Every structure is written in structure tokens, then in C-alpha cells.
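TASK: fixed-backbone design
INPUT:
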């Protein structure tokens, strides 16, 4: 998501930071900033928007001679993309940059405010620098103050801190968010991934969770809970393009693998021990709401369809879903007791945006679920929940879909809590299942090679049907869309119970059917639908935790007791199937023909 760069040494620091941040811009950007201390002088610059704006702002500034420096490019999660919310965050004499989410920041912030500290930003990060200075004002020892600060933080972080109280040192800590240290002679670099330091550092150490320390005189002092420790450096990669993809062949592949970790970000601060909370939503958002209407396009529409089952089943609230381009011209009848929800990865999709404007004009309250803060759809909506998937580069959406679906699932529980349609037992079962989701999204060691092997059997034929029931029908639609987009093979998603009403006429050995057969939802029903297809000689790839002898190919999943865990696990299988078929066909996985990442035209 956000990106961090740090440098300690005698070279021009501004250029090192800006070049490094440029390399991280592909991860997302809405603002950026740098802070430098040299000759005991602290300098700080921030700018909203692309990095170019920060470059323009720092044109006159040069930073030669020994010094310490930190920089950050931001993708908003807490607080709008403004200069005040951009990192580095400032105390009275120190600066901090941070990736991740400090879960207990509100508690820490309240304590600091009670001591008279004034906060400038809406971010969780700012608490780190104030807490550090509070400790330092008490003990006058920067290192002890930093240690004490880190010990109070809960959540995920990778953080760098510089201070005029110790102007030749960079303090660092990592827990749950990536951070590495690069070395070249006495120069020390920090970064949230390889790319900013390739070509500059020659060796690298990848910090482990729970490690922290400081860089001083070209040396690293590294600690963990057992005290100071030694570490070994390794040679740094030299291929930037490869490093951007974190070693994966394609951005789409990287994003499939990332789903498990980004899901933690999506849930952080929202999934609490005993309930779901959205601090970004006004408590009265659902007051007087008796109906939910969701409008979206493509993959986002599929997450909306899945959500409609959850809103009705768990929150007992009627929910209709509409394709935005259809909604716009159907002269819809809108009532003001309806909450109008839009879902969009980019926040710029023209059809969805126009649908939202229509609903607003009709006086409906609006909520957007989006991956890009400050996008047109977020700005246009009364309220917004960010999916926190990080920038998605692959044109075929993967992690955006997963995180949208999670936000919608959490929202269904949130509404159910407000409307008291969920009892404590069901609530705790749902929350427990959510906690297992990151695990369900992990790509099991044997799964990817299996999908690579299976894919060679599915390169021809006269089409694919992805079939499922209930929640697994939208997933079938999404599986088919993924395959279509990157393989250019014809694929359709269908409710499995509907096959006998027409499409089964297509069944023969050259019709490939991908059957989503969850154990926890209508297993017997879907099984009999798939048996009907097997009887007509269709070629069936079954995905299920339950062995199914009639299948030509079978992928065994592990979760079998909660539909949403089965949903997420099967989603990964369908994504990998599409990916591997596309690779075998020699297509451009990340930039399929005729498609664009953001569809800003009608
Ligand atoms: C498919 C895909 C598209 C988008 C659709 C809407 O992989 O990405 O179908 O889902 O164009 O885009 P957003 O979500 O940005 O509104």
C-alpha cells in the first residue's frame, strides 16, 4: 500500500528519497512527503497528488553533506489525502513515517490529548511521533523513548523516526508490514520493498516482525524481544521490474497471493472481539433505511450480488442489485427509505458515478465501497468505506473483489447489529469465520502447481460454464469473467439449478463445466445439478471439500463449515485457473486486449 524510503549517509538525500518514492508510486499514491536533518537542521516538504508535485516543491532544495532522511508515499486509509495527513508526521522536533495501521491509536491519541498534545492530522501515524516526544521529554533519552513508544503500539507497522534530539540516527521498527535495510559501504537505506534501493544498495537485510533498532555511523543496531541480535546481509536483486512484482511473473499473480495479507488490512479496526465497527460511518446512517440498492459494474457487480444474499439473510434487509449501465436508463423508481450503495475499485467508473448522481438527485442517502480515497465516487457519496486492497495493477480484478466482498459481509453484520437481527451465537460464528478468512485465502503449496497442470486440459472446447448456487452463483459469474478477460475463451456463469432450463442442451464432452460445490450450502442440490451434466457427458471440473467421483477433474478444498470461507477458498482456485490458462495461451495476463483498468466512459 503506502511506501517508505529512508537514507543515512553523505549523498544528496532529496534525490535518493524522491527516486525511491518514484519506484514505489506503482503501489499507490495520493500524497507524498520527505523530511531531512542535516547540519542540525530539519527540513520537511509534502505535496498532495502525484510525486511530481513534491518534486516541483523541492526543486530549489539541495541536501548535501552527512544527514538522515525519511520519505513516504501514501495511499489513504485513515483520513483524506491532504497535506496535513501526508507523512512524514511532525512533532515539535521529530518526524515519523509509517505503513500499516496502529489499531489502538484512538486510545493513545486520547491520552496524549489529555496531556495537551495538539494533533494536526486525522491519521493513526501521528500518535507515534507525539508518544515518542512525550517519552523523550520525560527521560531525555531518544533510544529509550523510541523503545517505549514501540512497546505501546498495537497493530501492524513499519516505521522510521528521525529527531533533532539525536540528529545522526534513524530509528526503525517492523511488525506486520514489510521493511528492509540496504547497505553500501557506510550508506544505509530503508525501504518498504526492494525497488527503491536497487542500483543504490548492494546488500540487504529483510527485517522480521518484532525487530526494531537504530542506524548510526553506517551501522545497524538490531533488537527483538530477546535483546540485541546479529544478522546476516544478503545480495540485493538487480532487476527492478521483477522486484516490483515481488518475484511473481505477473501483477495479477502477485495480487492473488496478496489477498491473504490485504484482507487483514481490510478487517483491521473493524472486526473487533465482539462486533463489527466502522468508525468512518455515522451511527445514524441506517436509521429509517428499510431497503438497500447496490449499483456497480463488472467484478464489483459480482461482489454486490454476493452481498445481496448476506443483507437479506443476516441483516433481514431487502437488497436489490443493479448493473449501473442498465440502472441509468430504466427510469428507476427510487424511495428515500433506500440506502444507495455503489461499489467500485477505481471510484471512477462512469456508469456507476452517474447512477450515484441520479440516486442523490432523487434524495437517497448514499454509501460507496471503494479502493481509492478521494476518487470521484467517494467524493460524491455521503459516506464511504475503503476496501484497503492497495493499488491493483492487473487489469483483471482479484484482491479488489476479495476485499469488496469482505467489506460487504462486515457491513451486513453491522446492519444486523444495528437492527438487532442477529443473535450472539450467530454473531460470534460470523466473526470467527472472518478471522479465518486470511487463512482461507492463502495459496496452498500444492494448489498452484495443480492448477498449472490442470490448465492444459482446458485450452480448447466450445466454452465454459461456471456454475454455483446461492452465494456461489455470483462467484461463478466472477470465475467466468476472470477466465474470459485473460484467456479470451468463452465462459458463462450460471445458477446451477437453471442449467436444466436451457443451457444443458449445450452439454457434451467439449463443454467444460467448473462446478462450485461447497459443503456448507445446498451441497445435495448442487450435486444433483452437476450429476445431470455428467450424465450428458459434459467435462466437469469440480471444486469441493467433498470427493465427487463423477468429476473428470477434481480440486479438493479444505474449508467445509462456513459458506464465506468456502467462497474465498474457491475464489482463489478460479483465479489461478484463469491465470494458468491465460499463460498457456500466451496472452498478456496483466493487460488483456481491449480492456482498461478504469472505465471512465459510458
Ligand atoms: C474485471 C474488472 C471490471 C471492473 C469494472 C468496474 O476484472 O475489473 O469488470 O470490475 O470495470 O470497475 P470498478 O470496480 O473500478 O468500478
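OUTPUT:
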Amino acid at each position: 500500500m503506502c511506501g517508505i524510503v529512508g537514507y543515512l549517509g553523505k549523498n544528496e538525500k532529496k534525490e535518493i528519497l524522491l527516486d525511491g518514492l518514484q519506484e514505489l508510486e506503482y503501489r499507490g499514491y495520493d500524497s507524498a512527503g520527505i523530511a531531512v536533518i542535516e547540519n542540525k537542521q530539519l527540513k520537511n516538504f509534502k505535496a498532495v497528488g502525484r510525486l511530481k508535485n513534491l518534486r516541483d516543491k523541492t526543486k530549489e532544495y539541495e541536501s548535501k553533506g552527512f544527514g538522515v532522511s525519511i520519505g513516504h508515499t501514501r495511499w489513504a486509509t485513515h483520513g483524506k489525502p491532504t497535506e496535513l495527513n501526508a507523512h512524514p508526521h511532525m512533532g515539535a522536533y521529530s518526524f515519523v513515517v509509517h505503513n500499516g495501521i496502529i489499531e489502538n491509536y484512538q486510545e493513545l491519541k486520547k491520552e496524549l490529548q489529555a496531556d495537551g498534545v495538539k494533533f494536526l492530522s486525522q491519521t493513526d501515524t501521528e500518535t507515534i511521533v507525539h508518544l515518542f516526544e512525550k517519552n523523550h521529554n520525560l527521560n531525555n533519552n531518544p533510544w529509550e523513548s523510541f523503545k517505549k513508544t514501540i512497546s505501546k503500539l498495537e497493530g501492524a507497522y513499519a516505521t522510521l523516526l528521525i529527531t533533532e534530539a539525536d540528529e545522526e540516527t534513524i530509528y526503525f521498527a517492523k511488525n506486520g508490514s514489510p521493511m528492509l535495510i540496504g547497505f553500501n559501504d557506510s550508506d544505509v537505506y530503508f525501504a518498504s520493498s526492494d525497488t527503491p534501493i536497487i542500483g543504490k544498495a548492494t546488500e540487504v537485510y529483510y527485517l522480521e516482525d518484532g525487530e526494531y533498532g537504530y542506524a548510526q555511523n553506517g551501522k545497524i543496531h538490531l533488537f527483538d524481544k530477546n535483546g540485541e541480535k546479529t544478522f546476516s546481509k544478503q545480495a540485493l536483486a538487480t532487476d527492478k521490474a521483477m522486484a516490483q512484482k515481488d518475484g511473481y511473473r505477473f501483477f495479477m499473480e502477485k495480487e492473488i497471493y496478496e489477498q491473504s495479507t490485504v484482507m487483514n488490512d481490510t478487517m483491521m479496526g473493524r472486526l473487533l472481539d465482539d462486533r463489527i465497527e466502522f468508525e468512518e460511518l455515522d451511527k445514524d446512517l441506517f436509521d429509517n433505511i428499510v431497503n438497500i440498492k447496490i449499483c456497480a459494474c463488472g467484478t464489483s457487480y459480482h461482489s454486490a450480488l454476493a452481498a445481496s444474499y448476506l443483507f437479506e439473510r443476516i441483516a433481514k434487509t431487502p437488497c436489490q442489485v443493479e448493473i449501473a449501465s442498465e440502472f441509468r436508463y430504466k427510469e428507476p423508481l427510487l424511495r428515500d427509505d433506500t440506502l444507495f450503495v455503489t461499489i467500485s475499485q477505481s471510484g471512477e467508473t462512469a456508469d456507476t458515478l452517474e447512477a450515484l448522481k441520479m440516486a442523490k438527485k432523487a434524495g437517497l442517502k448514499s454509501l460507496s465501497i471503494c479502493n481509492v480515497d478521494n476518487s470521484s465516487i467517494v467524493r460524491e457519496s455521503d459516506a464511504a468505506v475503503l476496501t484497503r486492497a492497495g493499488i491493483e495493477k492487473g487489469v483483471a480484478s482479484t484482491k479488489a473483489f476479495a476485499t469488496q466482498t469482505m467489506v460487504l459481509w462486515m457491513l451486513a453484520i453491522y446492519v444486523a447489529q444495528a437492527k438487532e437481527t442477529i443473535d450472539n451465537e450467530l454473531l460470534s460464528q460470523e466473526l470467527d469465520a472472518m478471522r479465518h478468512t486470511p487463512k482461507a485465502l492463502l495459496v496452498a503449496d500444492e494448489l498452484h502447481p495443480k492448477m498449472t497442470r490442470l490448465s492444459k486440459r482446458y485450452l480448447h472446447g466450445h466454452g465454459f460454464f461456471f456454475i454455483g448456487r446461492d452465494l456461489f452463483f455470483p462467484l461463478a459469474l466472477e470465475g467466468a469473467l476472470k477466465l474470459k478477460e485473460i484467456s479470451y475463451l468463452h465462459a458463462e456463469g450460471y445458477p446451477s439449478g437453471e442449467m436444466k432450463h436451457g443451457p444443458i442442451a449445450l452439454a457434451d464432452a467439449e463443454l467444460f463445466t467448473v462446478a462450485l460445490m461447497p459443503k456448507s450450502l445446498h451441497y445435495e442440490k448442487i450435486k444433483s445439478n452437476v450429476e445431470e451434466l455428467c450424465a450428458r457427458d459434459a467435462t466437469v471440473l469440480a471444486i469441493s471439500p467433498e470427493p465427487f467421483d463423477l468429476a473428470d477433474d477434481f480440486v479438493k478444498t479444505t474449508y467445509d463449515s462456513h459458506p464465506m470461507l468456502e467462497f474465498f477458498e474457491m475464489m482463489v482456485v478460479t483465479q489461478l485457473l484463469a491465470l494458468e490458462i491465460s499463460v498457456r495461451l500466451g496472452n498478456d495476463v496483466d493487460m488483456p486486449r481491449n480492456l482498461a483498468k478504469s472505465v471512465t466512459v459510458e
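COMMENT: The chain is about 35% helix and 25% strand.
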